[in-house]
Amino acid sequence: MSFLTILALGIGIFVAAPYFAHRLRRQRADEVPFAPVRLVPATPPRARRRSRLEDRSLFFVRAASILALALLGASPLVRCSRLALSRGGASVAVAIVLDDSMSMRARASGGPSRFTRAKNGAEEILAALREGDAAAIVLAGAPARVGLAATTDIGALRAALDGMTESDRATDLDGATAMARTLVGELPQIDRRVILLSDLADGKSDAPPLGESTDKAVPVWVAMPELGKELAADCGILSADRASGRARVRFACSAPAAAAGREVRILDGEKPIATAKLPETALGEVMIAVPGDDARELTAQLGGSDAIAADDRALVVVESGPAAIAVVGDRADDAVTTGGAPVVEQALAALHSDMAIRPIPQAPDRKEDTAAFAAIIVDDPPGFTPEQRKVLAAFVERGGVLLLALGRRAASAQLGATLEPFLSRAVGFAESSAKGADPATATLIGESASSLEDLGAKGRATLSIEDAQSFENIVRWTDGAPLIAKKQRGRGEVWLSTLPFAVEVSDFPLRPGFLALLDAIVADARERSVPLRSDVGSAWAFGGASRVEADGPTGHIVPTRDDGTLRIVPTLIGPFRLTIDGAKELRVAAPAAREIDLRPRAVAPAATSASLGGGVATVDVSWTIALALLGLVLLEMIVRAWTRAPERAAARVIS
């Protein structure tokens, strides 16, 4: 506020003038001698209420007039700021990129969040559009999404914008900007641009400046760069795990100084049971001894306050790490043949998958033993016990992938050990005239199918007609019998190979087609498996599930169906309690570490050019105050005339 504005508003001090004027207007009445008064007994004097104002309505009108006069003096300097578009033609086409990531939750000095201010800016831009203009809305929370495709319906744009809320997603400014350019790039308007409303904190502060592009047809305007220039400090919990009486809390801070004087508390309900000081580092972890029963539901919480409160609290869970692949086979026999690890383990290692490979001596017979696995590969099993059958069936039905390689041992299963419920009939094993697979049927493994034309097999497993018909053939032998087949069971899948993974039986494990098959199975397992903790914004797919119910941090969540599969996208960090076909699960959505880095990305000078809009429109409100002042003057004249009328009438009566 300038000196002239302060001086003009100082006129408001004179609002006290009408008060003193009305007080001074009350004068003591003149005493006139009246002889008969002596005949009346004297009455003791009483205090008179001289403090009461006369003509209160007139006083209030005059006081309001002085205040209006002060505002009128300041009004040429008091303006309402709004975003405005610079136009290079009769109509424009804009794509508004609204950042709904977690960093936009930051607040400065208790004011509105960055997202609220950016959303208000988007509303101002929509208000500046005219007939013939087109606009689209893109959300920059990862992954970038189209909020509304390009349209000239301003009402639809406003309705879509009203329904957009902040989230805890990471930031994808590059993807959102590219998507926005695509939406408006082919529109007929000559004047086209992308309007970016973001704090520019995408965790890539050293990346090339935003708006620095060779695409001159659709430039980028960073409309509110001040959002990223505000000082803000934040620390957030990335994960909280517990095992063996200890809780391990991983955290990230926008700067090491943001962790100064803060601590981590482990809460049982709302009661602290353990605390530890937070190290002054941008990325670190704290180990805290947790007394008592591991079955309790505990929460980790950061002490103190910062710019984003949503990431200061996390559920402490028992996390086994990334899902793994279990391999069940006779390691002693394979070691003799290969001189090392079984061939299937070597093949999985050659895929360089991020999923761990864990050899186990036999198929699991307890449900908890399968919790860490996304896929189980069983090489030539001699049947399964009743306990193993029950556990493996439950594993597949909840979304696991099971691969059974059938050989001589599977065909000679002992009494009571069967392959049910995956195969209802006994398996045979015999020699075959077919030398290998038909490449035309092996589209799943692509070009490597030709490597399966001659497998040198000394025999193969045979299925009953009923079992063969219940599976989908992926790769066939040249005589039409299944070599690789699969079928859906619950939320998971069962894969079959009619050749075991032993090199003394065939060359199948040594061919490129075998690697391609394992790669397809690993990809299937990865897609179906979801760890207990995953990044916020990553979709959870429930393949094969018919009913999914979910409760998240804000209440009940309705799943969507995409290509026949139910999906839920967690947009907020925190615990989600799911019920999948009657089975209860707990999953946790965690923040991305880069989203806690609040350093803004650089902006190209061209992205803030005034030719794109680059300023604010000012609205002078002095005319409104002037009209109000004239109204008050007119009201004063009416009040004066109304209050003086009784006095004139009394004067005429006396005269």
Observed structural traits:
655 residues; 26% strand; alpha/beta; 14 helices; 31 strands; seven-stranded mixed sheet; five-stranded mixed sheet
Structural class: alpha/beta
**Computed Rg:** 39 Å
Number of helices: 14
Distance between the termini: 59 Å
What portion of residues belong to β-strands? Answer: 25-35%
* Uncertain stretches of 5 or more adjacent residues: none
Sequence of strands across the biggest β-sheet: 15-14-16-17-22-21-20
Per DSSP E runs of 2 or more residues, the count of β-strands stands at 31
Tell me, briefly, the overall form. elongated
| Mean pLDDT figure | 84
* Fraction in helix: 10-25%
Largest sheet: 7 strands, mixed
What does this structure look like?
This protein is α/β, with parallel strands linked by helices and 655 residues long. Helix 1 packs antiparallel against helix 3, helix 2 packs antiparallel against helix 3 and helix 3 packs antiparallel against helix 14. The chain is elongated and about 145 Å long.
Short description:
The protein is α/β, with parallel strands linked by helices and 655 residues long.
